[in-house]
Amino acid sequence: MEHRVVVTGLGAITPIGNTVNDFFENVKLGVCGIDFISRFDTEGYDVKLAAAVKEFDPAQYMDLKEAKRLDRFSQFAVAAAVQAILDACLDVDKIDKDRFGVIVGSGIGGLECIERETKTLMEKGPKRVHPLFIPMTIANMAAGNIAIRFGARGICSSVVTACATGTHCIGEAFRSIKHGYSDLILAGGAEASITPLGISGFSALNALSRSRDPRRASIPFDKDRDGFVMGEGAGILLLEEYGHAVKRGARIYAEIVGYGATGDAYHITAPSPDGYGGAMAMKNAMKEANIMPRDISYVNAHGTGTPINDRLETIAMKSAFGDEAYNIPVSSTKSMIGHLLGAAGAVEAIACVKAIDEGFVPATIGLLNPDEECDLDYVPNSGRKADLAYVMSNSLGFGGHNASIIFKKMEE
Description:
By secondary structure, the protein is an alpha/beta fold. It has two domains: 5-247, Peroxisomal Thiolase, Chain A, domain 1; 262-402, Thiolase/Chalcone synthase (Peroxisomal Thiolase, Chain A, domain 1), CATH 3.40.47.10. The protein contains 13 helices and 14 strands. It has helices at residues 20-29, 64-68, 72-87, 111-124, 133-137, 141-150, 165-178, 196-204, 242-247, 276-289, 307-321, 334-337, 344-358; strands at 5-13, 35-36, 49-50, 100-105, 156-157, 184-191, 233-241, 254-263, 296-300, 330-331, 360-361, 384-385, 390-397, 401-409. A ten-stranded mixed sheet has the order 5-4-6-7-1-8-14-13-9-10, sandwiched between helices. A two-stranded antiparallel sheet has the order 2-3. A two-stranded antiparallel ribbon has the order 11-12. Helix 11 (307-321) links the parallel strand 9 and strand 10 (330-331). Helix 3 crosses helix 6, helix 7 (165-178) packs across helix 13 and helix 10 (276-289) crosses helix 11 (307-321). The longest helix has 16 residues, at 72-87. It starts with a strand and ends with a strand.
C-alpha cells in the first residue's frame, strides 16, 4: 500500500532570515544576503564575498553546554528542526517515536571544527585535540543530534551527495513514508563552510565568483556570471503521512508527489554535457507524480551561477520539458542566498512550499545581461504572483548526483 506524503512543518536558518517567515518575506522582496566575508581575514584571498547567516543565537534553541558540543552546521540543523516541530504544532510525546525519523545531511560537515582542531594539533600536540572532535565534525551528526533532541527512534540517516544532499534527504524521506516505513520524518540539510579552508578549496577549483560587488556576484543565468557564492544555513521540513496529519488536525502546506534521483557517471565536478542525468531526474519525478511538463507551474533551478552549470541545466530542462520549457517560470533563489551546498536543496524546497502556499514565484535577482544560451523564463529581478499547482525543485551535486522533487498544491 502506498501512502500520501505531506509537509506539515518548516524551519530555516538562512542568509536572509533566521525563520521561515523572515526568509520568504525577503525572498519576495528580492533581498540580497551576500556581503563581504567577516568571519576571517580575507587578505590574500581572491574571493571576498559570501552569504553568511546573520545574528544567529544558538541559545534560542539549546543551552550553552549543548551549543559548545556542536559544530556550527549542527547548531543550524537543530535550530531549524526545532522551528519545524513548533511550526507543525507536533507534540512529540503523543506520537509513535519508533515511526518518527530523521534524514538530514551535510555536504561537508564540521569544517570549522576540523580547521580549529587541526591548528590545535599542529601547535599544541595530539593530547590537546578536543575530545568531541569526531562527533562534532562528521556529517551524520546533524541527524543524530536532531534525533536525540526529539527522541526520534525511527530511521536516522544522512545522505551525503554534495550540493544535492538536501534534496536527496527529502526524497528519501518521502519514499520511506510513502512505502509505509515511517509516519513522520524531519528531512533536510545543514552547512557551515564559510571558513578559510572552505573558501580556499572551492576557489582553487575556480568555482567561486571573484566579484567585489555583492549585487553582481551570485547571478545565475546572466552572461557575466563567473561562479557561485558560498552560503550557509539549514532547512528542515517535517514530512508526514497524510492520514496521520489529518488525524491530529495538522496544517498541511503541500503534498510531495514525485522524486527523481540519477547519476551522470561522467565527471567529478562537471555535469554531463548533454544534460542527460539532470533531465532524467526531472522526468522520473514527473513520472512518479503522474504529470506532464505542461502541469509544472514553476521550477526552482539548481542555478548556481557557474558558467557551465547554468548552461547545462538549461539544456537538461529543455530535454525534460520539450517545447513546454519555454512556458514554465524558472528561477534560482541562490541569487539571493548564495549556494548553501548540502543545505541548498532543503532551503530551496522550503522556498517551493512557500511559493505554493502564498501563490508567489520567486525572482532570479541580479539578472541584467541574459545569456543567449540560457533562454528560458528565468523570472528576472522581480517575482510574480501566480496560482501554483505543481512546483519542481532541482539539485545537481559534484560527483554527478542529480535530484528533483515535486510538490503539489494540497487537495483533499
